[in-house]
Amino acid sequence: MGLYVFHFPELGEGLHEGRIEKWLVKPGDEVKEDDALAEVENDKAMVELPSPVDGKVVDIKVPDGTTVVVGDLIITLEVAGEGNGDAAVLQDEKTSGVQQAGLESVAQHVAQASPSAPATESPAHTQHAAPVKADDAIRSVAHDVLATPGVRKFAREQHVDISQIHGTGAHGKVTKEDVATFVQGGDHVVVGEQVAAHEMQSSDGHNTQVPITTQVTSSTAVGGLVTIEERVALPGIRKIIAQAMAKSKYTAPHVTIMDEVDVTELVKLRQEIKSLAQEREIKITYLPFIVKALVATVRKYPELNASFEEETQELVLKRSYHIGIATDTDRGLMVPVIGDADRKNMWTIAKSIDDLASRARTGKLMPNEMKGSTISITNIGSAGGMFFTPIINYPEVAILGVGRITERPIMKNGEVVGGQMMALSLSFDHRIIDGALAQHAMNELKNLLANPQLFLLEV
């Protein structure tokens, strides 16, 4: 048997720390690879930390509520494999000189943590223990990505830097197939991939409640008036939202056009299919219809389904349709992504929206579920709003804002009739998209929403 020392990994690009909210295991528990070890909150989302190996929990090194940085020792696991029966340390080929210098102290910590290690065993003895196979070794590199030791060994054999590979496995883990594809010249990285989804718009009118921590309560006197002040520390997620909003607003010149559409027929259709949705245990809202209409629209006007690269001054037209759906949560605005929405029917999209929104509100979304959108939708109608000016998810070039549906008199064929009117707001990057093009796209979107039978062509 060997001892696997698990250091806190980098759970996503730029994520260097996290807070262990709750351990889901205890010493003595048996775990399988990819089983959730703990719930971790970071600047991106609440995520579950998967076990990198099969084994038994030996010792939990940090309690619930502890903030840790990448490389911190957090848990040890007993694993099957060759070794000296106590503990061993694998000096990964990626280990830097500084990391190697600290390897002795790591070995000493392992020796002290191992319940089977003799009390008289010296750190030096532990450090010079017989080498173990990579699959039974300890991950000791501070900036590791999620991957099993076997996959890391395969990557080293192929002379590949595993940190350059985008993982497609559970929790974003790099698999052997990912390494092989990379070696063959493939690229799993999404072109124009954004930072995590909550970096999207939050100044779109949502009155989001964000958990905050009181720092100081004080008072100031100005002009004879005393004001009681309470200073609070912004959560990391709100800081990142603020940075992203500022970058988008001050980089891309925003223009917003506003319009409304008679969706009386769409309202009737939704009402008619509610019973079918209930039979399938699906919550059917207007969003799946809007997603399909938006996909059809940007197919016709591809300039809206694009990103802009500053360095090369190129417009990158996306031939995939990944739609971001803004979701209001008590931690901030999260935007999970409906991938390949053009290939999904209405039922599948409805299921995905409900599942992703539910997990966003409970903090269970994985970072990779909030990346890669090509154009986004933000819905202020659910909060009772109508027209607004949503902020573009830079470097995307457009975002659709959806307002509430209101019933009011309208003129139709020369007569005043009751109509169900939906408010729409389309913000776009005026460097790339002219007003006329944006209005043509809006007209196409309105036509689809007003005539839902056209959706049959998109299913």
How would you portray this structure in words?
By secondary structure, the protein is an alpha+beta fold. The protein is 25% helix and 27% strand. The chain is built from ten helices and 20 strands. The longest helix is centred in the middle third of the chain and has 16 residues, at 236-251. The relative contact order is 0.12. Mean pLDDT is 76; it is low at 82-144 and 187-214.
Can you count the beta strands? 20
**Percent of residues in helical segments?**
25-40%
Secondary-structure content class: alpha+beta
Shape: globular
Radius of gyration: 26 Å
* Strand order across the largest sheet: 11-20-19-18-14-17
List unreliable stretches of 5+ residues.
Answer: 82-144, 187-214
Q: Major beta sheet, specifics? A: 6 strands, mixed
By CATH reckoning, the class of the largest domain would read Alpha Beta
Domain Lipoyl-binding: 3-78
Pfam families: 2-oxoacid_dh, Biotin_lipoyl, E3_binding
Enzyme class: transferase
Biased composition (Low complexity): 111-124
